[in-house]
Design brief:
Elements: H1 3-22, E1 29-36, H2 43-61, E2 68-75, H3 80-92, E3 98-100, H4 105-118, E4 121-124, E5 139-141, H5 146-160, E6 165-171, H6 176-189, E7 193-200, H7 208-215, E8 220-225, H8 228-240, E9 245-249, H9 255-259, E10 269-272, H10 281-294, H11 300-319, H12 323-331, E11 336-338, E12 341-345, E13 351-352, E14 356-361, E15 364-367
Parallel strand pairs: 1-2, 1-3, 3-4, 4-5, 6-7, 6-8, 8-9
Antiparallel strand pairs: 10-14, 11-12, 12-13, 14-15
Amino acid sequence: MSKTIKIIIALIVIAIILFIISKPDGSQKIKIGVIAPLTGARADAGEYTKNALELAEKKINKSNSKYKVDFIIEDSRYEAQTAVSALRKLIDFDKVNFIIGPYGSSEVMAAGPIAEKSKVLMLVTGAQSPDITNLGDYIFRIIHNSDQEAPIFAKFVSSKMKSNTLHFLALNTAITDPYIKLFKPVLESQGKQVGLIEKFDPKANDFRAELTKLKKQEHTDIFLIITPKQGAVLLKQARDIGVKAQFYNIGVEGPELLTQSNGTSEGLLYPYSYDNASSEESVREFYNSYMSIFGSEPDTIAANVYDAAQLIHLCIENVGLNVGSVKKCLYDTKDYHGVGGTFSIDSNGDTLKEIFIKTIKDGKFVRYEK
């Protein structure tokens, strides 16, 4: 055999090997960035995120799909600038094109413009501020936004109020002012009004000064925009200083709200879009797997993160790794049966979901029934 033929054969073998290695046959992994509050005031949301990603990774990587996933998780500490730093690291160092998160509205408002400029797809799973809608063409949401929720909940709250005035105790973050702005006109159209608006730091753990102002109000109705852990502290402090009120909250479920409130969270009313009691097979499989592995119930963040991971993977599986093609696939999402509910994505990148009311009854998060 001549030397030339040997070289040609060797080149053919190398070409075949390179083709096999590069071919998306299941051994190729997609890097997906994740920005979540693993520490800080919303570390509970970070825990839900990690758990959901573990379930999604197992399901995807054990399937016969062409692409597998590798999640690279960065801690935002529930801080806007830390979220920006995490995003920069994922884009510049890890070279990712797809990102799940960040969690909070302030984080998304800070990081979103950078993702948009870099043409990196961002799937938001927890932030509801209506301002996020205008961040750009590469920013999507798997959670419903305040534009959908606030008018529905305002009408419900007005029907349940014991007084004519609703007072707000709220986190000083990017969600609060836009939410109240959307909420107020609907409330007023029902003959009610907004009273005091008291804001506090996301790290606050003493609310007695704010509650004392409201103690003077007879038959008080109080709307909370607060984390589960803070909610438990606030509700206990309200009881201790004698504040009697009907409490409402933006839909946040977390074990701390039940285990640390000493029963004071009973009767809390809030809007939600994740139904963990749904009979849909995908919902039951997710819920049972989560409970089996982690020993606790998943919340809407866990469900939304899981759906975000599955949806990104589904689009890549169908159209490949081109960011523009994946973006179009996301915009084309209609009636997707996720574990967090059936949803479609509109022309703004926002998710449209059914919104219903839940409450805490006998120490459990349940659907509200009249």
